[in-house]
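4.2 Preliminary Data

To establish feasibility before requesting continued support, the project team ran the inverse folding procedure on a target of 123 residues. The structure was first converted into the token representation described in Section 3, and no sequence information of any kind was made available to the design step. The complete token record follows.
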């Protein structure tokens, strides 16, 4: 059974919106969203300290993407508005169950990863 289960990806036109969800199977300390486009490195898009609610959003998506959580459901969200073709990528949810440097989110700081969900934005 996957520890993180993602949903919500899809195809939209530029300017559209999508919301990604990620359900965790247990306690988390920090959760984040990453994305990876073909031929590019995986980059951290947003992160949240699940105990305090503090958030981080990368400059490349600031003002368009919002990270949030539902603690009661152990679920992480990424609301993506005003999507651009350059947002096209596989999006991954990640979680750490121990103390880690949450911001900015680095791939080495998270021990659990979701299977990924594809987001495609057409012009």
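Position-by-position output of the design step:
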């Amino acid at each position: 059974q996957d520890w993180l289960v993602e949903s919500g990806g899809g195809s939209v036109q530029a300017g559209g919106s999508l919301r990604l969800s990620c359900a965790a199977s247990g306690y988390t300390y920090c959760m984040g969203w990453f994305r990876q486009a073909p031929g590019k490195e995986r980059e951290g898009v947003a992160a949240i300290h699940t105990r305090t609610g503090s958030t981080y959003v990368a400059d490349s998506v600031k003002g368009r993407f919002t990270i949030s959580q539902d603690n009661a459901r152990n679920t992480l969200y990424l609301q993506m508005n005003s999507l651009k073709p350059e947002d096209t990528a596989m999006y991954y949810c990640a979680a750490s169950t121990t103390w880690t440097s949450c911001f900015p989110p680095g791939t080495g700081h998270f021990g659990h990863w979701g299977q990924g969900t594809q987001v495609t934005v057409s012009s």
